[in-house]
Amino acid sequence: MDIVLQQLVNGLTLGSVYGLIAIGYTMVYGIIGMINFAHGDVYMVSAYITAIAIALLTFFGIESFPIILIGTLFLTVAVTGAYGWVIERIAYRPLRNSSRLAVLISAIGMSLILQNYVQLSQGANQQGVPTLLTGAMRIEVGDGFVQITYMKLLILFISLLGMGVLTYVIQKTKLGRMCRATQQDRKMASILGIDTDKVISTVFVIGAMMAALAGVLVTLDYGAFDFYVGFIIGIKAFTAAVLGGIGSLPGAMLGGLILGLSEALFAGLISSDYKDVFSFSLLVLILVFRPSGLLGKPEVEKV
Amino acid sequence: MISINKVDQLYGGTQILWGLDLEIVPGSITCIMGRNGVGKTTLLKAIMGLLPIKSGEITMEGETLNKQSAEKRAYSGIGYVPQGRDIFPMLTVEENLRIGLPVRSKRTKDSPKDIPEKIFELFPVLKDMLHRRGGDLSGGQQQQLAIGRALVLEPKVLILDEPNEGIQPNIVKQIGDVILKLNAEEGLTVILVEQKLGFARRVGKEFRLMEKGRIVAADKMENLNDSLIKQYLAV
Ligand SMILES: Nc1ncnc2c1ncn2[C@@H]1O[C@H](COP(=O)(O)OP(=O)(O)O)[C@@H](O)[C@H]1O
Ligand SMILES: [Mg+2]
To answer: What ipTM was estimated for this complex?
Structure first.
C-alpha cells in the first residue's frame, strides 16, 4: 500500500514536470500546427542556464536559498524565453508559408544545432549543480510512511502555480484572448487587427518559459545534466501532450500528470528498467486508438 | 474611397480576376453581383489582403494597400464579414466582440475596454447571448455577431460577403435595416456581395455585375433591368 502511495507522490511531481514541458508542444501545435522538435532542447538549454544563474548568484555572494531560487527562476525563465523567441524568428517564421515538411525539417535541424551549440560551448561532459535544498517530509500511513522531499514539494508547488497563472492568462486576459482567437482562425484574427506573427512569437516564448520552469526545478532536484537531457524528457512531454489531446492546454497538463503517475506506478510495481518503454508504448497506443487524445477535438478544420 | 485598378489574381495556375477595375464612392452602398464562381469572394479577399494579387493596384483613400498586411487594413478602417461568417466558435460572444477593441481604441476616443453600446442596440440578441460560445449560436445569430464584430472596429467601409446565405427571413430583414441605418446616419460605405435580387434592390444604391473575373456592368440600382439580370444573373 505505501509503495503505491509513495509512487503516486513521485508520479505527481514527475507528471507536473511533464505537464510544464508539454505546454510548449501543445500551444505551438495549436497555433501553427507544427510539432516543435527543438522544444526538448530548449528545456536542455534551460538546464545550462540554471547552472550559470546559480553560479552567478553564488559568485555575488548570495547564499540564501529562497533568493537563489527566485533569482535563478527569474533569470532562466527570461533567458530561455528569449531563446524561444529567437528560434521562432530564425527557424520557423521564414517558413510560414512553406509546406509542413519543410518546417518539420527545420525543427529537427534546430534541435541538432542547439545540442551541438551547447556541446561546443559548454563541453560534452555531464555537468552538475550543488544540492541547495535538502530534507524531506514523512507522512505516517498505517504501519509505514510516505516520504516526500522538500525539493519535490517545491517542484509540485511551483509547477502547479505556473500552470495556474498560465491558465488565467490564457482564459481571462486580452493576450490570452488574442492567442485563442489566432489559434482558432488566424485569417479572421488578422482581419480584426491582431498581429498574428506577434501572437505566434508570444506562444513560443510562453512555451520556452514553461520548459524553463521545469528545467530549473529538475536541475535543482536531480543535480546532473548534459547536452542530451532534452531528448527523453522531450519525448515524454510530447507523449503527455498527445495523451491530453494535442492543441489543448488543459489536456497537456492533465496528460502530463497521468503520464507521470502511470509511469511511476509502472516503475514501482512492475519494472523501473522498462518505464521508458512503457511511456513510448503508451504513445503508440494513443496514436492508434485515440489520436485526438483525452481532451482534444477530433481534428477541427485547420486554417 | 476604395479604388481597384487592373487587378489580376491567380490561384495556383488559374487566373480568377482579369484586369478588374472597381471604384467605390464614399457613402455608397455598392452591390457586387454575379453567378457563383465569377470571383466575387476572391475580389473581397484581395481587398482584405488575404490573397496576394499578381498585378494592379488597390487603394484606400489614395493610399496603396497592396503591401499592407490584413491587420493594417483593419486599422485603416476596413471591416469585413466573410462568406460563412467565420466567428470564433470557442470564444464567447463577448470575447468575439472584444477582439476588435484595440483597433477601435486607435480609431475612436472610446474606452479600449468596453464594447460600444451601439452594437447591442443594433443587435439586441447579442446582449442576451453574451456568455454563450460563438459556435453554439444559430446561423442568424452568428451572422449578427459577425457584423457586430466588424462594427466594433468602427470601420469606414463595411464589406459583407453574402450575409443572407442560409438565414431566416426576419433576420435578413433586420440585417438590411442595420445596413441602411448605418449608411444613412453615419455615412458608412458598404460593399455588399449579394445573390438575392430583392435584398439587393432594397439595400443597394449601386450595382456592379461580375462575370469571369471582370466587372461587366456598373450603374445605379434602379437601372438594373431585366436584360442585364437575364444575361448575368439568371441561372
Ligand atoms: N482556394 C482556392 N483555390 C483554388 N481555386 C479557388 C479557391 N477559391 C476559389 N477558387 C476558384 O475561384 C473562382 C472564384 O471563386 P469565388 O471568388 O469564391 O467565387 P464567387 O464568390 O463569385 O462565387 C472559382 O472558380 C473557384 O473555384
Ligand atoms: Mg463567394
So the answer is: 0.93
